[in-house]
From TrEMBL:
SMART domains: HTH_XRE. PROSITE patterns: HTH_CROC1. This is Probable addiction module antidote protein. Pfam families: dnstrm_HI1420 (PF21716). The lineage of its organism: Bacteria, Pseudomonadati, Pseudomonadota, Betaproteobacteria, Nitrosomonadales. PANTHER family: SSL7038 PROTEIN. It comes from Nitrosomonas communis. NCBIfam families: dnstrm_HI1420 (TIGR02684). InterPro entries: Cro/C1-type_HTH, HI1420, Lambda_DNA-bd_dom_sf.
Length: 92
């Protein structure tokens, strides 16, 4: 008997904007920079690439490229994405 599995995608389990904010907050406070970029990618997929790209004022292709595993987004791009997700970058 073969067991079929599929990859777990947390983006499918976010139910509210607060879920996304908490996920980003936890990752920003405990992870590496690459972890935060990955978390942004996850959050953007949960909300919809097209919607977030429009809100951030970037093309959908540029958003995909910035948040790819080998992407290297500029800080202003990260700030636009965070704002488009309804969040703020706060230093405390």
């Amino acid at each position: 008997m073969t067991t079929k599995t599929r990859r777990f995608d947390i983006a499918a389990h976010f139910e509210t904007d607060e879920d996304i904010r908490e996920f980003l907050r936890l990752t920003a406070n405990s992870g590496a920079t690459s972890d935060f970029i990955y978390a942004l990618n996850t959050a953007v997929r949960a909300k919809g690439m097209t919607e977030i790209a429009a809100r951030a004022g970037v093309s959908r292709a540029s958003l995909y490229k910035s948040l790819a595993d080998d992407g290297n987004p500029r800080f202003d791009t990260i700030a636009k994405i965070v704002e488009a997700l309804g969040c703020k970058i706060i230093i405390s």
